[in-house]
Specification:
Elements: H1 2-23, H2 30-72, H3 82-87, H4 89-92, E1 99-100, E2 103-104, H5 115-127, H6 133-139, H7 144-155, H8 157-164
Antiparallel strand pairs: 1-2
Helix pairs in contact: 5-6, 5-7
Length: 165
């Protein structure tokens, strides 16, 4: 019985070998095998190129976003500081009006508020007396002098806008 099983196994293996030989050189290595390897290398090279292209696309998007952020602070009728533009304009508008191109923004209107009220609000946000994680995150790295400077600048927005009319 063992001999019969071994004989059948040998015949199956030999049959598979003949079938592989008849199918051609791609299954045996050789020149056609190299073509298959070249195709695999080409696919790998395409994947690397697309990864590099994606990265440069991301960089392009980051550049566009940076340009938009810089532009946001200069869309008002008067010039604002870099500190206001980078920290405040994206939520409160380029001129503190709480709107941009006629659309309401995330932050409330700051335009026309007094220096003292603005300063107190900034301190309250930083200390956590008024809960707002966005404001707190933006203000953590600023100090008291920065608060005074921003408060003074924002309180002058109304006079600046009237001066440009």
């Amino acid at each position: 019985m063992k001999n019969i099983i071994i004989g059948i196994s040998v015949v199956i293996v030999l049959g598979l070998m003949v079938m592989t030989f008849q199918r051609g050189p791609a299954f045996q290595g050789g020149e056609a095998g190299k073509v298959v390897e070249d195709i695999a290398k080409l696919d790998l090279a395409k994947a690397k190129v697309s990864t590099l292209t994606d990265k440069s696309d991301r960089e392009k998007e980051d550049d566009k976003l940076s340009a938009l952020r810089a532009k946001a602070g200069n869309m008002s009728m008067f010039k604002v500081s870099d500190k206001y533009r980078s920290r405040c304009a994206s939520c409160h508008g380029a001129d503190g009006s709480g709107t941009q191109n006629g659309k309401k923004m995330m932050g409330p209107k700051l335009f026309g508020q007094s220096k003292e009220k603005l300063y107190k609000s900034l301190v309250d946000f930083k200390t956590g007396r008024v809960e707002n994680s966005v404001m707190r995150g933006l203000l953590l790295s600023l100090n008291d002098d920065d608060f005074k400077e921003l408060s003074k600048e924002i309180s002058e927005f109304k006079a600046r806008s009237e001066a440009t009319k």
